[in-house]
Design a protein that fits this description.
The protein has 7 helices and no strands. The chain is mainly alpha-helical.
C-alpha cells in the first residue's frame, strides 16, 4: 500500500506544482492549454456542468456537448472495476477507447467550427508555447535588422 501511495505522490506532486505554476504564469490550470496554447478536448466541461446545474441546458451543451457523458464513463468504469478488481475487463477497455475517440472527434469538430474566436475554443496567448514562439520571433527580428 505504501508503494502505491508513494507512486501516486511521485506523479501527483509534480503535476500539482505544474498546475499551480501554469495558473500563475498562463491564467489556466489546464495543462494542455498552458503548455500548447490551444484548447484541450475537455475544455468547457467545468463551465458546462456549472450551467447544467443552474438549469441552462442549451448553454451547457454549447460549452461542451459531451458534459453529460462524464458520469456515464465514471459509472461504467466503476462497475467494471467492482466486477473484476484484478484485471480490467476487455469490454471496459473497448468502452474507454471508444469514449476517448468520441471526445477527440468532438474536439476536432469544435476546433473546425469555433477556433479561434468562440469560447471556450480560444487560444491561450500566455501559454508556454506562445511565449517561446514570441521569444524566437523577437530573436529573428533582431538578427534580421
Amino acid at each position: 500500500m505504501k508503494a502505491k501511495v508513494r507512486g501516486a505522490a511521485v506523479f501527483a506532486v509534480p503535476l500539482l506544482v505544474f498546475m499551480l505554476a501554469s495558473q500563475w504564469l498562463t491564467g489556466t490550470i489546464c495543462v494542455f492549454s498552458a503548455a500548447f496554447g490551444i484548447p484541450c478536448p475537455g475544455c468547457g466541461l467545468t463551465r458546462a456542468w456549472v450551467l447544467a446545474l443552474r438549469g441552462q441546458w442549451a448553454e451547457a451543451f454549447f460549452f461542451h456537448p459531451l458534459f453529460w457523458y462524464i458520469p456515464v464513463i465514471a459509472l461504467v468504469w466503476g462497475l467494471g472495476w467492482l466486477r473484476n478488481r484484478r484485471q480490467t475487463p476487455r469490454w471496459l477497455g473497448v468502452f474507454l477507447k471508444a469514449s476517448f475517440a468520441l471526445f477527440v472527434a468532438v474536439f476536432a469538430l469544435r476546433m473546425a467550427l469555433y477556433f479561434p474566436r468562440t469560447a471556450p475554443m480560444v487560444p491561450n496567448r500566455d501559454s508556454f508555447a506562445w511565449r517561446i514562439g514570441r521569444g524566437i520571433w523577437w530573436v529573428v527580428r533582431m538578427i534580421l535588422r
